[in-house]
Specification:
The protein is of the alpha/beta class. Helices cover about 40% and strands about 25% of the residues. The two termini are about 25 Å apart.
Length: about 180
């Protein structure tokens, strides 16, 4: 079993943070059939501090020896229209796409889920947690990692004092993911 995930958006959206939290949750806190899972996280971003392109890939395996780079992701999480335009063609009919419905105008002709991540984060009064809302939705939609593992990882990587906010955003995302699955 090897699963690949790509998060993509713009700098400042927390794309890399989401990938780090996913990889950490899987590699430190998740087991499958009593066995450890392994995760490799890679990232790339433009030279701009905010507003440039940002991409974070996570590859997950039951084996500790595997090719670390994502060629065609099993899951593609998109948080901007430029990210959609750049990465939608690097998919196949089995790729599942999770879109921030207010930030991505286009829709693919493969399986996808719309998540109101930015809008719901703004309703919480903290647009900055839209990435955590998307992470929660992805965890619910994919079922590849437990919520418990990701919540532990979020506590590890989030700035101290933001744990309650991140937990609330993550739980909102899992609820949105569940709604998206039920609407499918």
């Amino acid at each position: 079993m090897t699963i690949s995930v790509r998060f993509a958006g713009m700098g400042g959206q927390g794309i890399i943070f989401s990938g780090i939290a996913l990889a950490r949750g899987i590699s430190l806190y998740e087991k499958r059939g009593g066995k450890d899972l392994y995760a490799i996280q890679t990232q790339s971003y433009g030279p701009e501090a905010r507003g440039g392109s940002s991409k974070c890939d996570v590859k997950i395996s039951e084996s500790e020896n595997f090719y670390p780079f994502v060629e065609i992701p099993n899951y593609l999480i998109l948080m901007s229209q430029p990210a959609y335009e750049r990465f939608i063609d690097v998919t196949n009919e089995d790729t599942v796409v999770v879109l921030d419905e207010d930030a991505v105008e286009s829709r693919p002709d493969i399986r996808y889920y719309d998540i109101a991540a930015t809008r719901k984060a703004e309703e919480m009064g903290k647009r900055i947690v839209a990435n955590v809302v998307m992470l929660g939705a992805f965890v619910e939609i994919s079922g590849i990692v437990s919520k418990r593992s990701i919540l532990k990882a979020l506590c590890d990587v989030a700035p101290k004092g933001t744990e309650p906010l991140n937990k609330k955003a993550f739980e909102l995302g899992t609820a949105l993911g569940k709604d998206a699955i039920n609407a499918d």
